[in-house]
From TrEMBL:
The lineage of its organism: Bacteria, Bacillati, Actinomycetota, Actinomycetes, Jiangellales. GO terms for molecular function: heme binding; molybdenum ion binding; molybdopterin cofactor binding; sulfite oxidase activity. Its cofactor is Mo-molybdopterin. Residues 263-357 form the Moybdenum cofactor oxidoreductase dimerisation domain. InterPro entries: Ig_E-set, MoCF_OxRdtse_dimer, Mopterin_OxRdtase_euk, OxRdtase_Mopterin-bd_dom, OxRdtase_Mopterin-bd_sf. This is Sulfite oxidase.
Length: 366
């Protein structure tokens, strides 16, 4: 007889010193695709080019039968269908989402999980109704501290059977830009991005953006579910509680210049003046500076920043580079208005979360 306990690994595994990416990691990477970096050219990412991360399976939900319940520490519990939700006040926010595990595959030793490099990011226009209005209607009671959000998707994670659930501090849940979104870029949410309704918490890493939302429960104690207490913690060893992963640290990405080599993705660029462009974001405060290095972080020069399109959307940047023949390692880094600066080398943590080391792009100038 075989039990679940025999084939799950808890805590999450760390790869051996010379262990390459495994078939399990490849399978995850093939399901959960990233933003092709050339799509950094779009202010708003076309939905099909937005990164994707789903822990279990994309659930089958009939929008006509879907209901959202608002329960727990409220005086008037609610249950709404999609039409009722869509009849409420509607707003649109442009928001950049990034997976907290972005950059994980570059850690050494490598935490075995979705093996992201740089590409787990995207920006969309999310339309829906502010959560705060629903919570006001339900009447949050005085002792409330957290709000738990439940998705319709179910599976096992390190031996724990669960539906995807995340808790958010009440003060964050009451922000007026936190949305129950049913549209992405002006169209109904596609299945993979949470149809019919998902949560959007601008500024926070992806794990907070609960897809396939079916339940909102106000709690009088801190939410202690798996995704808050076990996953999405910054820790060095398996047995320490660690710190929660919350908002996105600043990051700049370069749209790789020139044309790629198919296999290595090394870029080939013709000599002369090359325009380097990209995007930068932070969940703490708007990005205040972006710097570019063409000598692998040896020296840096400032890029020119475009306008900040919305408080939590990525900001465009550009600079010119007079490229002379040779091989170069380009790096970019951002600093935000809250004083966070991107490191060149990534500090290690056991689950590979909130990595924001400076991206590197290898360029051969001919
Ligand atoms: N219900 C549910 N919501 C979820 C997830 C999930 O697996 N199930 N994954 C989370 C994670 S880890 C990320 S990074 C984002 C990804 O959102 P996207 O796939 O729309 O880009 O969704 C979050 N919301
Ligand atoms: Mo994520």
């Amino acid at each position: 007889m075989s039990t679940v306990e025999e084939w799950v690994s808890a805590p999450a595994r760390i790869a051996g010193p010379d262990e390459g990416v495994s078939i399990d990691e490849l399978r995850l990477a093939a399901r959960n695709h990233g933003l092709p970096l050339e799509a950094l050219r779009y202010d708003v990412t076309p939905a099909g080019l937005h990164y994707l991360l789903t822990h279990y399976d994309i659930p089958a939900i009939d929008p006509a039968g879907w209901r959202l319940t608002v329960s727990g520490a409220v005086t008037r519990p609610l249950s709404l269908g999609l039409d009722e939700l869509r009849a409420r006040p509607r707003v649109t926010h442009r928001v950049t989402l990034e997976c907290a595990g972005n950059g994980r595959a570059r850690l050494s030793p490598r935490p075995v999980s979705q093996p992201w490099l740089d590409e787990a990011v995207g920006t969309a226009e999310w339309t829906g109704t502010p959560l705060a209005g629903l919570l006001a209607e339900a009447g949050v009671t005085a002792g409330a501290v957290d709000v738990a959000f439940t998705g319709a998707d179910r599976g096992f994670e390190r031996g724990v059977e669960q539906t995807y659930q995340r808790g958010l501090p009440l003060a964050e849940a009451l922000r007026d830009d936190v949305l129950l979104a049913d549209e992405m870029n002006g169209l109904p949410l596609p299945p993979q991005h949470g149809a019919p309704v998902r949560l959007i918490v601008p500024g926070w890493y992806g794990m907070a953006q609960v897809k396939w939302l079916v339940g909102v429960e106000v709690l009088e104690s801190e939410f202690d579910g798996f995704q808050n207490v076990t996953a999405y913690r910054l820790k060095q060893s398996a047995d320490e509680p660690g710190e929660p992963v919350t908002r996105m640290l600043p990051k700049a990405l370069l749209q790789p210049p020139g044309v790629p080599d198919f296999q290595s993705r090394v870029r080939v660029v013709d000599r002369g003046v090359v325009e380097l462009t990209g995007r930068a974001w932070s969940g703490w405060a708007p990005v205040e500076s972006v710097e570019v290095s063409t000598d692998d972080g040896g020296s840096w020069r400032p890029a020119e920043l475009g306008p900040q399109p919305a408080p939590y959307a990525w900001r465009p940047w550009r600079c010119e580079w007079t490229a002379i023949p040779g091989r170069y390692e380009l790096r970019v880094r951002a600093r935000d208005g809250a004083g966070h600066e991107q490191p060149v080398d990534q500090a290690w943590n056991r689950q590979g979360m909130a990595n924001n080391h400076a991206q590197g792009v290898t360029v051969v100038v001919r």
